[in-house]
Design a protein that fits this description.
Elements lengths: L1 H17 L3 H12 L4 H7 L9 H37 L18 H15 L3 E2 L5 E3 H4 L24 E3 L5 H9 L4 E10 L11 E11 L4 H16 L5 E8 L2 E10 L16 E10 L1 H6 L8 E8 H8 L6 H4 L3 H5 L3
Bound molecules: 3,4-dihydroxyphenylalanine.
Length: 340
């Protein structure tokens, strides 16, 4: 029996060297020392020995169990340490590895241009207001002195929601809303989207952007309009650009003028972009029609005003050399990534 015990002992000791994981070690422990293990079996067979040999043999088995348990515990510690080290190595994070930078967005060209204009006009004391894109026909047309049968109301141009409600065709209705709500002095700009029943092509879009301007006070003259727009043009395009006024007609201004800007492409010498003229049309303007002032509750005997409506899309296209209007509205991230 002593021989068997020694065999078991040597076997366990040599097995201990070969186990490579805590799971294997546990299996070994069960096999050697468990309830149904080899040493327990040996203890149970003590009865087969002669009475006088039993105490010594029992003590030997217990001593072996204790010694083996200690070795197993030691090995368990070793294996645990080894497994933890391996896990740490596996899960290690290389903090020196260069990280992938997230893509950072850019403002849309329209937004860039709009923000610059806002900065320019607020610098001149204008307040920024935003109107509603869904507008009553009454403000969009009637109060802007565009009567019922005026061609500008043609269903071809205007997107109607119902008989009285339209998608605003210009930002000008904000003039009426502000004049009806406030007393002069008024000095506001209103940027935003406007809508017309146009097909989308390289130079038209059913949705585009304008910035309305309105100044109403005593003694406002065409010279104030010109000075304001000249300061605006030089702020946005630089000191070497000029503006020119061309007589025009709008129902809500009298007199009216269309305003051209030195072509940013050829600096005025004439090119494809400006069709050889050296000028690019950027806005409509004029002195607020006294009829409009009166309709909006402002005494046209006492007050006068000027107004302008700037088209932002064409300006953004010129500024960023964007050849096709559709690029402004298709949301292709590759366009924006070029502006970074
Ligand atoms: N509302 C005009 C348009 O959409 C632009 C415009 C012209 C606005 C003259 C004005 C103005 O305020 O005075 O074409």
């Amino acid at each position: 029996m002593l021989e068997t015990l020694n065999k078991i002992r040597t076997q366990v000791v040599s097995d201990l060297e070969t186990v490579q994981s805590t799971a294997e070690l546990e299996a070994l422990q069960v096999k050697a020392l468990g309830k149904k293990g080899e040493l327990t079996a040996l203890l149970k067979s003590l009865g087969k020995l002669p009475q006088e040999e039993r105490p010594a043999m029992g003590a030997a088995i217990n001593e072996a169990r204790k010694a083996l348990q200690e070795r197993i515990d030691l090995r368990a510690q070793e294996l645990k340490r080894k497994e933890r080290d391996e896990a740490l190595r596996r899960e290690a994070i290389d903090v020196t590895e260069p990280r992938k930078l997230p893509e950072i967005g850019t403002a849309h060209p329209i937004t860039i241009v709009m923000n610059e204009m806002i900065e320019c006009f607020t610098g001149m004391g204008f307040e920024v207001l935003q109107g509603s894109e869904v507008e009553l026909e009454y403000y969009n047309f009637e109060l802007m002195n565009i009567p019922k049968n005026h061609p500008a109301r043609d269903a071809q141009d205007t997107l109607y929601i119902d008989d009285n409600i339209v998608l605003r065709t210009h930002t000008s209705p904000m003039q009426a809303r502000v004049m009806l709500a406030r007393k002069p002095p008024i000095r506001i700009v209103c940027p935003g989207r406007v809508y017309r029943a146009d097909e989308l092509d390289a130079s038209h879009s059913p949705v585009f952007h304008q910035m309305e301007g309105l100044v109403v006070d005593e003694h406002i003259s065409m010279a104030d309009l010109r000075g304001t727009l000249d300061a605006f043009a030089k702020h946005i395009y630089g000191a070497d650009v000029n503006i020119r006024f061309r007589p025009s007609f709008f129902p809500f201004t009298e007199p009216s003028a269309e305003v051209d800007l030195t072509c940013s492409n050829c600096k005025g010498t004439g090119c494809k972009v400006c069709k050889g003229t050296g000028w690019i049309e950027i806005l409509g303007s004029g002195m607020v029609n006294p009829k409009v002032l009166d309709m909006c509750g402002i005494d046209s005997q006492k007050y006068s005003g000027f107004a302008f409506g700037i088209g932002l899309d064409r300006i953004a296209m010129g500024r960023f050399a964007i050849p096709d209007m559709r690029l402004l509205f298709e949301g292709d991230a590759r366009l924006l990534s070029q502006l970074r």
